[in-house]
Amino acid sequence: MANIKDQFLLNDEITFLNHGSFGACPKPIFDTYQQYQLMLEKEPIQFITKTGVKLLAESKTALANYLNCDADDLIYMTNPSFGINTIVKSLDLKEGDEILTTDQEYGATDRTWKYYCNKVGAKYVQQKINLPLVSIEKFLEDFWSGLTANTKIVFLSQITSPTALIFPVQEICTRAKELGLLVIIDGAHAPAHIDVDLKKLNPDVYLGACHKWMLAPKGSSFLYVKKSFQTNIDPLVISWGYESDFPSHSQFQDYHQFQGTRDFSAFLTTPACLKFLEENHWSDQTKKSRAMVQQYYPILAKELNSHLICPLEDTFLGQMCSVPISTTNPLGLKAALYDEYKIEIPVVTFTKQIYLRMSLEPYNSEKDVEILINALREIKRKTTLIG
């Protein structure tokens, strides 16, 4: 097989170790995306009202098969933040209600919950998860210690953004359902990163991104809502689907999928993404990426006089790892890594701790990680950016 990196549009001059933030789209998928955009511009009326609608249904069916759910339970959205706003705004939160979450959630979702909780006097409980993680049992003990009689909703990430940890959401979902709690899962980093089986997981709501590890163009994500809960969800934008002149079999689809004129070409690329993953044996390729994460995680920690925040095993680690780093100037360190060494990697300030987060995809090589390690050594030697 040809060098997989040659199939991506990434700048060859940059050592790209930040797939986790916005993904990276391969050339064949991007070509498909642009073909749809061209179809839209050549015949916008037919595309938006007929051709594109048919393609969207086909794309949604492909995504549903991949996630093991019903296509009617999925809505394409531009990003998970749009989805969480749709959900939280629709919830009948009352004063005193509690949402149990962790202290390691994505900043945009934290802000969404806090905004709507503050409006009604509900409480967003960011339960502390002790790091380093040592076991699933200890995680569950930490998490459920935040449960009270006022807990109504459980919300957490399947893979965290700042700390790059895989959380045991299956165990959380199972117990939450036993307790009669509503379960909302942020799976932005999960599809094509780890296995996602929505029937098995059984959340009430699941948010995911296609433009991260599924390799779709930017602006392709999805919202899953269980059928029994769909009538509770109001559209974030009221448009033609409300009191539709031509209602479909699903009010959920009518209300949420078509919300005004927009280019939805990115949504249509899911079949091309799945084809690329299959043809390039992506599951085998990403096993090598995970192995490389586990190989270099302790090396990075040692170089930074730091420590691991979880065991070196697939239970908690996927294709990302976050290393606590001592620096008084995280923005300066990030800028130095990019401007002077041409390395794209996030330096994240989170809960009074700063992390260097490395993402590895099959287009990354050991050479890329060695470039990072050598850059960190030189920065330590020449500057005060790393303590």
Account of the protein in words:
The structure is a single chain. With 387 residues, this protein is an alpha/beta fold. It is built from 13 helices and twelve strands. The chain is globular and about 70 Å long.
Count of folded domains: 2
Order of helices and strands: EHHHEHEHEHEHEHEEHHHEHEEEH
Q: So what's the oligomer here?
A: single chain
Shape: globular
Structural class: alpha/beta
Tally of helical runs = 13
Architecture (CATH level 2) name of the largest domain: 3-Layer(aba) Sandwich
**CATH topology group of the largest domain:** Aspartate Aminotransferase, domain 2
Mean pLDDT: 97
Give the termini distance in whole angstroms.
Answer: 43 Å
Beta-strand content bin: 5-15%
Could you describe the largest sheet, including whether it forms a barrel?
Answer: 7 strands, mixed
